[in-house]
Design a protein that fits this description.
Order of helices and strands: HHHHHHHHEEHEHEE
Mean pLDDT: 83
Helix content: 40-55%
Number of helices: 10
CATH topology of the largest domain: Cytidine Deaminase, domain 2
Number of strands: 5
Shape: elongated
Structural class: alpha+beta
Largest sheet: 5 strands, mixed
Radius of gyration: 21 Å
Number of domains: 2
CATH superfamily of the largest domain: Cytidine Deaminase, domain 2
Distance between the termini: 33 Å
CATH class of the largest domain: Alpha Beta
CATH architecture of the largest domain: 3-Layer(aba) Sandwich
Length: 248
C-alpha cells in the first residue's frame, strides 16, 4: 500500500520482450516474484498495477496494459480515481478489473484512516495529508471534508460534508458545527479541493475559515487547520501563517 501511494515514475521494461508472456520472463523480473524477493518498493507503478490486473490482453502483457493505462490517464492518482465508464473505454479493461483497482485503492484510504484513529493527527501530518489527497485531490468537482478529532486529536471520522461544481461549493458553518457536536468532536481539521489545480486560498476561503473558527469557539471546539488540495499540491492555512491555533 505504501508503494501505491508513492506515485513513482513508470519504468519502461527493456528486457524479456515487449510481447512475450510474463511467465517467460526471468523470475526476478516477473512482478509477483520481484515483489516477493525485493518488496513492493522495488516495483514500478506499472508493475504494481499489473499484479492487480493479473492478465493482459492479446498482444500485451499485464505490465504493458498497465503502462498503457497510466499513459492514458496521465498519472496513477488519476487512474485510481477513474470512473467505471472512463476505464471501460480502454482496450482490455472491463468492470471486473476496474473493481479490483477500486478495491485496492479503498483499502489504502481505509488504512490511512485506521492509522489516524489510533495516533494523533498532529503527530502524523504526512498521513493526514495523504488521506486528504487520496479522498479529494483528484476529483473533478469541489468537495468539503471535515476531519473530526477527539480530545487526543485522533480521528473520529473523515466526513464529506458538502459537494459542489467544478468552480465552487456552498459551505454552511452552522452545519459544520452541528455535525461536530453530533460526533462529540473536540477539534476539527477542514479541507477542500480546487479542481482548477491551484491550491491557494481565495478571499472567500479566508473569510470562511475565520467565520468557522469563531463559530466553533462558541461550542469549545478548536479548528486546527484548513487545508486545500489540488491534483499535485497541498496548502495549509496554519503553515502559511493565515490562522493561529491553540493545540490544547
Amino acid at each position: 500500500m505504501n508503494s501505491l501511494r508513492s506515485h513513482r515514475n513508470i519504468v519502461a521494461r527493456t528486457t524479456g520482450g515487449v510481447h512475450s508472456p510474463i511467465s517467460e520472463w526471468p523470475k526476478g523480473q516477473q512482478p509477483r516474484e520481484k515483489l516477493r524477493l525485493a518488496g513492493p518498493e522495488a516495483l514500478s507503478d506499472a508493475e504494481l498495477l499489473a499484479i492487480f490486473l493479473r492478465v493482459g490482453v492479446r498482444g500485451k502483457t499485464a505490465v504493458t496494459l498497465a503502462q498503457d493505462l497510466l499513459g492514458t490517464f496521465g498519472s496513477l492518482p488519476r487512474l485510481l480515481n477513474s470512473s467505471a465508464e472512463e476505464i471501460t473505454r480502454c482496450y482490455g479493461m472491463g468492470i471486473s478489473k476496474w473493481a479490483q483497482i477500486q478495491a485496492a485503492y479503498e483499502l489504502v484510504k481505509r488504512s490511512l484512516e485506521y492509522e489516524l484513529m489510533h495516533d494523533s493527527v498532529l503527530g502524523s501530518p504526512a498521513q493526514m495529508r495523504e488521506l486528504i489527497q487520496a479522498k479529494i485531490g483528484q476529483l473533478p468537482h469541489e468537495v468539503f471534508l471535515c476531519l473530526h478529532l477527539d480530545s487526543k486529536n485522533r480521528l473520529i471520522e473523515c466526513q464529506e460534508l458538502f459537494r459542489g461544481s467544478v468552480a465552487q461549493t456552498a459551505i454552511y458553518p452552522r452545519e459544520i458545527v452541528k455535525e461536530a457536536l453530533i460526533r462529540n468532536s473536540s477539534a476539527l481539521i477542514v479541507a477542500h479541493n480546487h479542481p482548477s489545480g491551484e491550491p491557494y486560498p481565495s478571499k472567500k476561503d479566508i473569510e470562511l475559515t475565520r467565520t468557522l473558527q469563531q463559530a466553533l469557539q462558541w461550542v469549545a471546539i478548536g479548528l486546527l487547520d484548513h487545508c486545500i488540495v489540488s491534483q499535485s499540491s497541498f496548502f495549509s492555512f496554519v503553515e502559511a501563517g493565515i490562522m493561529d491555533i491553540d493545540p490544547n
